[in-house]
Design a protein that fits this description.
The chain contains 17 helices and no strands. The protein is mainly α. The chain has a single domain, classed as ADP-ribosylglycohydrolase fold (Orthogonal Bundle), CATH 1.10.4080.10. Helix 2 crosses helix 3 and helix 13 crosses helix 15. The longest helix has 22 residues. It is globular, with a radius of gyration of 20 Å.
């Protein structure tokens, strides 16, 4: 694998990053749907869109992960905090009640679903939507927090949909992080869920700034710096800190990039596992077959911590969008959600205008990724929501 410090963000316009990050979320979600609930190594390697036998769906159907991300993107792009006072700048803004209205419409009526109905929903999302609908809006979120803030409700339902916030509010990292936390509270008020959404959104904001800026700093954003962001984040949740930071017993981190990377490979929990797994599979001939750790070493369950770590591992252990996507979905268990979370991050990192580079030189576009795009069900729906988010984000940038 190419060193992390040598892998730098692919440059593109904000509009391209937003469009392709949302498209990537949907593509890898749909790719992973058939492997959901399956044990790792118990099924043939998935590298193309195949039917989802669990729900009786044809190839290319994305799941609740993408539907909820699209609902959030739609709300950010179209909500009006006060419908009686239209904004002169146009619609759009962060409104938790509008977000819940979109989620409720998806749950009940199939709004922004690939097949016109909600065919799968997590228990916590279902419970909070139901509770919200029974409460006075003025107290609904207080009731949700009282009922669902325990760690037993720390599923991945808010992390899986959070990508639009970093894509829209990328120029202001602090605001993006605040909104990411608030977006989690609507259905997942547990502190771990909030902090997972916050750190993930902070990274998306950093990537967008580097990829879309005219500054020379953009070419210096490497995957090693992404790892450092996670490692140095001021976590309040010990389990996130233990999984994503260097241990307190580690020696001081060197300054030189190559030495720093060796340091992370020796002491960081994710990179230690990457290095150990690479050494076991160094003789591997079939580059398509994922060289994954065991499910015990790298869980890919619906627990938000497991999903975040598995998606980040998929990004750090691979060097192209396609390779990481195939790795992520073949982890099994909550494969569609790990795939969707990976897809949003990796799409933001690797994506560029399709004609900007020849296919063989692209880290994003490949024959297989083209096939995923062409097989994706209701791709136009994803693209339409993305265009609204592009316009909304552009207005935010113009107003700064």
């Amino acid at each position: 694998m190419e060193p992390l410090h040598a892998q730098t963000v692919v440059l593109a316009s904000p509009a391209t990053k937003i469009r392709l990050s949302l498209l990537s979320t949907a593509m890898v979600d749909a790719l992973g749907g058939p492997a959901e609930f399956a044990d790792r190594f118990s099924f043939p390697t998935i590298s193309s869109m195949i039917p989802n036998k669990t729900f009786g769906l044809p190839p290319g159907v994305w799941t609740d992960d993408t539907s909820m991300a699209l609902c959030l993107a739609h709300s950010l792009s179209t909500s009006k905090l006060d419908s009686n006072q239209p904004s002169p700048q146009g619609a759009g803004g962060f409104d938790e009640h509008d977000q819940m209205a979109a989620y409720t419409s998806w749950r009940r009526n199939g709004f922004l679903s690939a097949i016109g109905r909600c065919f799968d929903v997590g228990n916590t999302v279902s419970g909070t939507i139901s509770l919200y609908s029974r409460c006075d809006p003025q107290v609904a979120f207080e009731r949700i927090k009282e009922a669902y803030e325990d760690e037993s409700y720390s599923g991945n339902g808010s992390l899986m949909r959070v990508i639009p916030i970093g894509l829209a509010y990328w120029p202001d990292e602090q605001k993006a992080r605040e909104y990411a936390r608030r977006s989690s509270v609507t259905t997942h008020p547990n502190e771990m869920c909030q902090e997972a959404c916050e750190v993930w959104t902070g990274v998306i904001s950093m990537i967008m700034k580097a990829a879309c800026s005219s500054s020379d700093e953009r070419s210096k954003l490497s995957k090693l710096r992404v790892l450092e962001y996670f490692a140095k984040f001021p976590y309040k949740v010990p389990k996130l800190r233990d999984a994503l930071s260097l241990p307190s017993t580690a020696p001081e981190t060197p300054e030189a990039e190559d030495e720093k990377e060796r340091h992370y490979r020796s002491y960081h929990p994710i990179m230690k596992l990457v290095t150990e797994t690479e050494s076991l599979f160094s003789h591997r001939q079939n580059k398509l077959k994922p060289h994954a750790p065991t499910g015990k070493q790298l869980p890919s369950s619906g627990y938000v911590l497991h999903t975040l770590v598995a998606a980040l591992y998929s990004f750090l252990a691979t060097s192209t969008f396609e390779e990481g996507a195939i790795f992520a979905v073949n982890l099994g268990d909550d494969a569609d959600t790990v795939g969707a979370v990976y897809g949003g991050l990796a799409g933001c990192w690797y994506a560029h205008e399709q004609a900007a580079l020849p296919q063989g030189a692209s880290l994003f576009w490949s024959k297989r990724v083209e096939d995923w795009k062409n097989t994706l069900v209701e791709r136009e729906m994803v693209e339409q929501v993305a265009e609204k988010l592009v316009s909304f984000s552009a207005r935010l940038v113009a107003e700064q």
